[in-house]
Amino acid sequence: MAKIKITALALLFALSSPLLAQETDPPADATTADGTTTDSGLSMGVPADGEGIGKPYILAQFEAFEQRCMHTDLGADPCELYMLLKDDQGAAVAEFSMYGLPGGSDGPAVAGASFMAPLESLLPAGISMQIDEQDPKGYPFSVCSQAGCLARMGFTAEEVEAMKNGGEVTFMLVPFIAPDQKVALKVSLKGFTAGLEAVNIANAAADAAATARAAEGGATTTTTTP
Fold this sequence. Notes:
By secondary structure, this protein is of the alpha+beta class. It has one domain (about 10-45, about 50-215): Immunoglobulin-like. The protein contains four helices and eleven strands. It has helices at about 10-15, 20-25, 155-165, 190-215; strands spanning about 55-60, 65-70, 80-85, 90-100, 110-115, 125-130, 135-140, 145, 150-155, 170-175, 185-190. The strands form two sheets. The chain has a seven-stranded antiparallel β-sheet with strand order 1-2-3-4-5-9-8. Strands 7-6-10-11 form a four-stranded antiparallel β-sheet, with helices on one face.
C-alpha cells in the first residue's frame, strides 16, 4: 500500500472541513489519525485527555482571529487563521479560516480559505467578499454537510496584501427564505497580518517535519488531499 505524505495543506483541509475528515477511511495496515496501527480499520483508542492526535486546539489569539492548529505526532502542528463571524445581533452565523499555500504551488493563488455558511443559505447565490471599498468578488459553494455549506476560496498576493493593509472585510450571504435580501457580515482585519504570519511559519515547520519523517522512512498518515 503506497503511503501518502502528510502536508500542512492536506491536514488543514481536514481541520477546516468536518465533511472531508469524516469521509476519510483508513485502509488496512495504515497508521490511523489516532496514532495507532491496525489491520482491520479499527481504532484502538487514545487517552481522553484532550490532547489526542487529530484534535484541533487554539494556539494563539490575534484580536478577533484565532490561530487554530491540529495535534500531530510530528513535533510541529499545521494551523489556520480562524474567525467566527457574527451578525449585528451578536449571533454566530458563519466561520472563516485562512492559510498560506506552500511555495511553488500552481496557479495565481498564494493563500486559501474556507467559508462555512448556514444550511439556509441560497446556494446558487454563493457568497461575495469585499475588502474595504474595493470591488466585491463572488465565490461558489463547493459542498454542504450537516455543519453547513462550504466555499473554498483562493487569494492572489495582491489580495492578501490588501487584507494586510485593509480595515475590514464584508461577506454577503443570501438567505434561502428571503432571496431578495442580503446578510452582510463585517470582519475587522486587526490582527490579520500577525496571525497569518504565525500560521504560515507553523505550516512551514509542519511541512519540514513531515518531509523529514518521510525521508527517515517513518509512518505517514493517510489524509484527504485537495
